[in-house]
Specification:
Elements lengths: L3 H21 L5 E3 L6 E3 H17 L4 E4 L12 E8 L1 H5 L6 E8 L2 E9 L4 E6 L4 E3 L2 E3 L10 E4 L9 H14 L2 E3 L4 H9 L5 E7 L1 H13 L3 E3 L13 E6 L4 H11 L6
Parallel strand pairs: 3-4, 10-11, 10-12
Antiparallel strand pairs: 1-2, 4-5, 5-6, 6-7, 7-8, 8-9, 12-14, 13-14
Helix pairs in contact: 1-2, 4-7, 5-6
């Protein structure tokens, strides 16, 4: 049986080296991708290839599923799910809120999640069944009620059909909850929920590399992670709307997200 703690400790220098490259790169050629305001930099590609090489040394038989490549369907085999730079636009604009996200899946479910923010030097880690940590300190979701909640809402800029529903979520979380934030890094938004810095997070479309590691962090920190528009439940192999929260805010906040679905343009 694979020793996940040994794998975790082996990945730590790898993810930190990848993060250091992001932190110390102040300019990188930029290329447009499909969709509105969607970009990739040469650094995204270089970091991904670095991670592919290093992670393959740790688990030679594991598959590699990542943002800057074409991906085959998930299988039950061990699979690395990688976002080399989550928050690429922040990285491009020198906003210092980007991270490296690495998850290891088995049977299509995360068993190891690691997210590193090199600008804050914060490493978030979770092994299934063993809790969640930031720099070796145990973390837990908040206990705030929805009426006093701080929520993050991702704006899904690449998908115009989701804009009206997203604005609805923003308005409802702002007027019925406490306040909202928009950061530009879904992976770090999930670490904020896991560590109790915020109480809910929603984005109406994300890809597996955006949320696989963060999903495990949230649940291991005592929170709830859901894909509210998926009829067949949680699927880490496809893009989806995602919702994460502490258990106290879950029901009220989830109703807003479900109501927003009615506003999605086909």
């Amino acid at each position: 049986m694979l020793d996940l703690n040994l794998i975790k400790f082996s990945v730590i220098p790898v993810i930190k080296k990848a993060g250091e490259r992001i932190r110390t790169t102040h300019s990188s050629p930029v290329h447009e991708k499909a969709g509105h305001y969607n970009f990739v930099t040469d650094t995204d590609v270089a970091v991904q290839e670095f991670l592919r090489g290093e992670l393959s040394k740790l688990l030679p038989d594991a598959r590699f599923f990542a943002e800057e490549q074409e991906n085959a369907a998930l299988t039950d085999e061990y699979t690395w799910v990688v976002d080399p730079i989550d928050g690429t636009l922040n990285f491009m604009r020198n906003r210092h809120f980007s991270c490296v996200s690495i998850a290891l899946l088995k049977d299509k479910t995360p068993v190891l999640g690691m997210i590193y923010n090199p600008f804050a030097d914060e490493l978030f880690t979770a092994v299934k069944g063993q809790g969640a940590y930031c720099n070796d300190n145990s973390i837990h979701v908040s206990s705030a009620h929805f009426e006093k909640s701080l929520s993050t809402v991702g704006t899904a800029p690449y998908n115009a059909e989701l804009h009206e529903a997203t604005v609805y979520c923003i308005r409802e979380f702002l007027t019925k909850g406490g306040d909202i934030r928009r950061t530009g890094s879904a992976a770090l938004d999930l670490t904020d929920v896991a560590s109790g810095r915020t109480d809910t997070f929603v984005e109406l479309i994300l890809s597996p590399w955006d949320f696989a590691a963060g999903a495990l962090l949230v649940t291991e920190a005592g929170g709830r992670f859901d894909m509210p528009y998926n009829e067949n439940g949680i699927d880490f192999g496809k893009p989806a709307a995602i919702f994460a929260s502490n258990p106290v805010t879950y029901e009220k906040a989830l109703q807003i997200v479900k109501k927003a679905k009615e506003l999605i343009k086909e």
